[in-house]
Every structure is written in structure tokens, then in C-alpha cells.
Design a protein that fits this description.
Number of helices: 7
Largest sheet: 2 strands, antiparallel
Radius of gyration: 18 Å
Shape: globular
Oligomer: single chain
Helix content: 40-55%
Length: 199
């Protein structure tokens, strides 16, 4: 339902984030996944032209792939995330709706930075609820049943040195986060199996 915004919430076990109303599509092969990415995910990706980038992402993109092992009824989740880059509004020259998009992108990336910093320094409270982006990443970063891999892209242009340095500094902070060894979470699997059977 495009008229009402989708809001994430914790599952019954309190360990996985679900998004009621989110579109689900069954895929039976790797090629099915590729077609879904091309025909649905890519078309929904929002981009725009700024002074810094001709194909600037105007929103984050998250794709959740639940993999069901039929023999054991176990579900594993792969989350693919394309983060919109942080662009200084003054330098990008955006106005109007694009200005609001840039501000929201920067705010959510700042919230992600706070989460990474809290994980790195092993704080008791991790501020996942500070933005929808970090809340959606709760089950990727919030407990020891997951592993995370991040690729950071930087620009080779001299004019983008400051942004590239900031990206490398952020990547260095991420590198120091230790989530521990991933383990199986049977409670999450039960929640996901019930959710899978209801759709």
C-alpha cells in the first residue's frame, strides 16, 4: 500500500526486525533473484543529478533474501544494502525535494555512524531506533547470529578528497567492530518460518 508508509517492528522473539506490508516475492533460483533485482529493485531505486554526481542515489536500498532449507525448515537471511552516499548540500547544489532527500540521507548515515561507534566501543545501549535505516539493520548488527561485510566506494577526483577521506575514516571504524562468531538462532527461524507460511 503506497499510501501509508511502511514501518519496521521487532518480531515476537524480539531479535529480528520485520516490515509488515512489505512486498515479498518467491524465488527458486539465482536467476530468479537476478530478474527480481533488475525488474523490481533497480526500477524502484531513486537517483538524481547533483553537482557532485550525475547518478546520485537519493535513497538507501535494502533487499532481504530469506533462504529456506526445506529438510530442516531452517531459514537464513541475506541482506543486500546499497547506501546512498553522503553529500554536502552546499557542494551538491541540491534544492527543494532533493535538499530534503539529502538531509534525510545524511541524518540516517550519521545515525549509522553512531551505531558503529557504539558497537566499536562496546556500549551497553546501541541506538538502533534513532533512524529507520539503523532499525532495519538491527538483526544484521544487533546480535551474534549474523555477519556483516561492507564495501566503501571512494572517488578518485581531487575535488572529492574530503568526502573520500571521511569514507575511509568511517570504513576504519567499521573494520574495528567485532560482532563475534555467528551462531544459529532457533527462535528467529521459528519466527521466520511462521511468517513465511503466512504469505
Amino acid at each position: 500500500d503506497n499510501k501509508s508508509p511502511l514501518k519496521p517492528k521487532l518480531s515476537k522473539c524480539g531479535k529480528k526486525v520485520l516490515v509488515p506490508g512489505l512486498t515479498k516475492q518467491e524465488v527458486l533460483s539465482t536467476e530468479n533473484v537476478r530478474k527480481t533485482l533488475r525488474n523490481i529493485a533497480y526500477k524502484n531505486r531513486s537517483t538524481g543529478i547533483t553537482n557532485m554526481n550525475e547518478h546520485s542515489s537519493r535513497s538507501h536500498a535494502l533487499i532481504f533474501i530469506d533462504i529456506l532449507k526445506e529438510k530442516t525448515n531452517q531459514i537464513s537471511r541475506l541482506v543486500l544494502i546499497d547506501l546512498a552516499g553522503s553529500e554536502r548540500v552546499k557542494k551538491s547544489g541540491v534544492t527543494g525535494i532533493a535538499f530534503d532527500e539529502a538531509r534525510n540521507i545524511n541524518k540516517s548515515l550519521s545515525a549509522l555512524g553512531n551505531v558503529i561507534n557504539s558497537l566499536q566501543t562496546k556500549q551497553k545501549h546501541i541506538p538502533f531506533r534513532d533512524s529507520q535505516l539503523t532499525y532495519l539493520l538491527y538483526d544484521c548488527l544487533g546480535h551474534k547470529t549474523s555477519k556483516a561485510l561492507m564495501f566503501c566506494n571512494i572517488s578518485c577526483e581531487l575535488n572529492d578528497v574530503k568526502e573520500s577521506v571521511n569514507t575511509l575514516q568511517f570504513a576504519n571504524r567499521v573494520r574495528r567492530v567485532e560482532l563475534g562468531e555467528a551462531t544459529k538462532n532457533s527462535d528467529d527461524n521459528d519466527d521466520n518460518i511462521n511468517n513465511h507460511n503466512n504469505h
